[in-house]
Specification:
Layout: E1 3-7, H1 13-23, H2 33-37, E2 45-50, E3 53-67, E4 71-83, H3 92-106, E5 112-116, E6 129-130, E7 133-140, E8 157-159, H4 161-175, H5 187-193, E9 208-212, E10 215-222, E11 232-241, H6 244-255, E12 260-268, H7 273-276, E13 284-289, E14 291-295, H8 298-301, E15 311-318, E16 327-334, E17 337-342, E18 349-352, H9 353-360, H10 366-371, E19 375-377, H11 382-389
Parallel strand pairs: 4-5, 11-12, 15-18
Antiparallel strand pairs: 1-2, 2-3, 3-4, 5-14, 6-14, 7-12, 7-13, 8-9, 9-10, 10-11, 15-16, 16-17, 18-19
Bound molecules: acetyl coenzyme *A (ACO).
Length: 402
């Protein structure tokens, strides 16, 4: 039977969702369909059919991502990729990736695509690079701040979700343009991210919502009452603050809650809490990849962000999956703004397109990627200059899995 590929219609959410559930070895739940419907853009979802049977697919959410120095920019947020068990390793994913990336290029849609990868070995072959990491942070309850840390005297208040949500949305929107890696959220995204259904809780409590006039935190608790006294785990879902003082005040509130042993948070890898703590080593940290990024069109993507230093270099780009990127491009950054044009000049560096994706948000250094054999320098000094130009003011961080 030959395989066919097409985009979906509005009434195909149910079979598509069943397919994704089957690929992720999850039970299908009819009641979740309404929540998914708000996120479903059928014309941006591709599915592969074996005869009449939908056996694989993947979708795109139309969103914006904050890039270094230039606020939110359009991004194709790739999501819900799956192939039914029994139909794997015969090129279904490759067909979906081809349809997505070639489609973005041909229709001049988003010049950048991002995703969270279920397994790290999958997306490099399609030109995605590891662009951001998150830190699994664990801080013991009561951990003291350094003398001199200011938390202010404003009371942090726990409030019901209905009161918290509009305030959270406004705070998030105000903070977002300055936070590399944060995504735009519609009401449907907010509803999805904070749905808080029983089966998502994994034995933890419902979300608790905490407000400060300049920030908020959302958390759950896993209770633990051993003989030596309570030592629950407090899991922070999101902590957003417009000021450093509000950030410290919210952390202080969470660290001082009774019955807690540890505060745990999947946070940005430059979360400042280690600098607030008297004993920085009490914060245990381990890192893992979060966002993978794909430069769809080199000449359209690189000018989307700003650069901290000027540079003029010819890049010999290797891109086997999107051949329109292959070859030599001159990247010129003046006053932080980039222009990119095709040239026949001798290259200063050779880069795999994965490395451009990894460096795009300022998270990975091109010098490190060179040591990882994804970048090669021909002109001495060019790599250091280029690597510096790609840095950002903050570590990129994506506070939600989509
Ligand atoms: C953004 C997201 O949604 S991430 C979620 C991805 N989905 C999942 O993890 C759900 C469970 N897994 C699956 O559904 C499937 O196994 C998929 C989607 C990962 C792969 O689908 P397939 O149709 O089997 O992939 P396909 O046959 O096109 O393989 C292409 C290549 O990727 C490789 N590959 C596929 N899956 C993996 C993996 N998990 N790890 C490493 N390599 C992989 C294949 O070996 C093949 O390599 P080759 O080009 O060198 O021959």
């Amino acid at each position: 039977m030959t395989l066919t590929l097409r985009t979906l219609a509005h009434d195909e959410l149910r079979p598509f969702q069943r397919l994704v559930d089957s690929a992720f070895l999850q039970d299908s739940r009819e009641e979740l369909l309404e929540r998914w419907r708000g996120l479903f853009e059928p014309e941006r979802h591709h599915a592969v059919f074996d005869g009449d049977e939908m056996i694989g697919g993947g979708g795109i959410q139309t969103r914006a991502i904050t890039v270094p120095g230039n606020g939110p920019q359009p991004v194709a947020a790739v999501t819900s990729v799956g192939v039914k068990p029994g139909h794997r390793r015969r090129g279904v994913l490759t067909r979906v990736m081809t349809a997505q990336l070639h489609g973005l290029h041909e229709e001049s849609r988003e010049a950048l695509a991002v995703l969270w990868s279920s397994e790290a070995g999958i997306y490099g072959r399609y030109g995605y690079g590891m662009a951001a990491e998150f830190t699994r942070l664990s801080v013991p309850r009561g951990a003291a701040f350094r003398a001199g840390v200011v938390t202010g005297d404003e009371r942090v208040r726990e409030v019901p979700v209905d009161e918290a949500m509009p305030v959270m949305q406004a705070l998030y929107e105000r903070a977002r343009p300055g936070r590399t890696g944060w995504l735009s959220r519609t009401d449907a995204h907010w509803a999805h991210q904070f749905a808080d259904e029983e089966h998502d809780r994994d034995g933890l409590t419902a979300y608790r919502y905490v407000l400060h006039s300049r920030g908020y935190a959302v958390y759950r608790v896993k209770h633990d009452w051993p003989d030596r006294g309570p030592r629950g785990e407090l899991h922070v879902r999101e902590l957003v603050a417009e000021t450093d003082e509000a950030y410290a005040a919210l952390y202080r509130y969470l660290l001082d809650l009774d019955h807690i042993g540890e505060v745990k948070f999947f946070t940005a890898s430059d979360d400042p809490v280690v600098h607030l703590l008297e004993d920085s080593r009490s914060a245990l940290r381990s890192r893992c990849d979060s966002l993978w990024a794909r430069v769809v069109d080199v000449d359209r993507a690189l000018p989307l962000r700003r650069y901290p230093s000027d540079v003029d270099a010819v890049l010999d780009v290797h891109d086997a999956f999107c051949p329109w990127n292959e070859g030599r491009w001159r990247l010129t950054v003046e006053g932080g703004e980039a222009s990119v044009r095709r040239v026949a000049d001798e290259p200063d560096v050779a880069v795999d397109v994965r490395a451009l994706g990894a460096a795009f948000l300022g998270g990975a250094r091109l010098t490190a990627l060179a040591r990882g054999q994804q970048v090669r320098e021909f002109t001495p000094g060019a790599l250091n200059r280029l690597s510096h130009a790609f840095l950002g003011d903050r570590e990129p961080h994506c506070p939600e899995v989509f």
